[in-house]
Amino acid sequence: MSRGRKAKWMIKIAKERIDILFNLAEKEFNEHPERSHRYVKLARNISTKYNIKMPLKWKRRFCKNCHKFLKVSANCYVRLSKGKVHLKCLECGHVMRIPYLKEKKEKRSTKIESYLVQKKSNE
Ligand SMILES: [Zn+2]
User: Fold this and answer.
1) Which of 24, 59, 81, 119 could form a disulfide with 54 if both were Cys (CB 3.0 to 4.6 A apart)?
2) CATH code of the domain covering residue 72
3) CA 92 / ligand 1 centre spacing (Å)
4) What distance in angstroms lies between residue 112's CA and the mean position of ligand 1's atoms?
5) Rounded CA gap, 43 and 46, in Å?
6) Domain that holds residue 72
7) H-helix or E-strand containing 16?
8) What is the pLDDT of residue 96?
9) 106 CA to middle of ligand 1, Å?
10) How far does the centroid of ligand 1 lie from the alpha carbon of residue 90, in Å?
11) 66 CA distance to ligand 1 centroid (A)?
12) What is the SS3 string spanning 47-112?
């Protein structure tokens, strides 16, 4: 497969696969947590290969440090402080600090805009 830009349909399929993998990870976690961690790994492979950002829905469901699937009250805990969500991975002890959704959404849209502008100028 060629490097660089991927066809739209490929990206669509890749996104669907990421979603499927995370759904599986969620389903399997109670009985086979090691499978869930593997699904996260596969989803991450897809996202890097196709340059796709992790969907917001699943972004917080794995550890940024050890990349394991996180399930609240099973292997991670959530705490709110100073307008941020603290997510602690109990697999490796890594803490992720995430601003509240509203701020995040605004930030995200500006980020995406600047990214698109940058991309265009590179082409
Ligand atoms: Zn971790």
Assistant:
1) 59
2) 1.20.5.420
3) 4
4) 27
5) 5
6) 8-122
7) helix 8-28
8) 94
9) 27
10) 7
11) 4
12) HHHCCCCCCHHHHCCECCCCCCECCECCCEEEEEECCEEEEEECCCCCEEEEECHHHHHHHHHHHH
C-alpha 76 – ligand 1 centre gap (Å) = 9
Amino acid 6: pLDDT: 77
- Ligand 1 center to 111 CA (angstroms): 26
- pLDDT, residue 4, reads 63
Residue 25 pLDDT: 97
Span from the CA of 69 to the centroid of ligand 1 (angstroms): 9
What total number of domains does the chain contain? Answer: 1
Does residue 39 sit within a domain?
Answer: yes
Q: Is 3 inside any structural domain?
A: no
Give me the tens of pLDDT residue by residue for the chain, a chain 123 residues long.
Answer: 556 677 899 999 999 999 999 999 999 999 999 999 999 999 999 999 999 999 989 999 999 999 999 999 899 999 988 888 999 999 999 999 988 765 555 666 777 677 777 776 766
Q: Which residue has the tokens 């605004």?
A: 106
